[in-house]
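Next comes a concrete protein, fold included:
___
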Amino acid sequence: MVDATEFEHSYEDCDNSYYEEDTVVFTVNSNQGNFKKSDLFIANEPVTLLVDVSAKVSILNETVYRHKFAKYQLHAPKQSLLSYNNETLEIVGISYLDVELDGQIIHKHPFYISRQGACLMGVDLFNALDFQIYRHGSLIQTMGTTTADVICQFPSVFSGFGEISSFSHSPRINPQVPPVSQRLRRIPLSVRAEVETELEGGTTRYHREN
């Protein structure tokens, strides 16, 4: 059980032309705030991780890796990581290690090995361990919820058009800013011929009806 009132985090982004696809990842700023920690075993070694449910990946710093897990192979990293202030994090590789907590074992979980910084439990490991978030004793989010679970729990939202009742949307508008007309969205090339055919058919039907 994790108390959400004590979470502090910032984000990391992926930005490197070497990789085929950018993936958003996160990390905490360990210089400020109080964080929840989890004591567990990684490859039979006791390790304390900072819990950050905004982090998509879990991270071990190189000092911990060299001290406890040097015998385990390092693999090439799958993505590059940037800190909240847009500085590149130096990742030396990924190591796949078994994780054990209260008798539950997660086999070959990926850990990114960074040159420095905190050791983090990202949402990937958070989900794998079936952790949940509580606030003042009430469950506010289950990280492992699937799409099917949501559909079963809220069937009315996914039938018909659906709507939110007892809510009035009031966007904040600055009256000092003049409105600007935006260009129409361009039709993608892949469907342009299909759209032209549909438009021509509609024109033909209009002439026939009139």
Observations:
- The two ends are 68 Å apart (CA to CA).
- The first helix runs from residue 62 to 68.
- Helices lie at 62-68, 123-128, 147-153, 189-209.
- Residues 2-24, 26-30 have pLDDT under 50 and may be disordered.
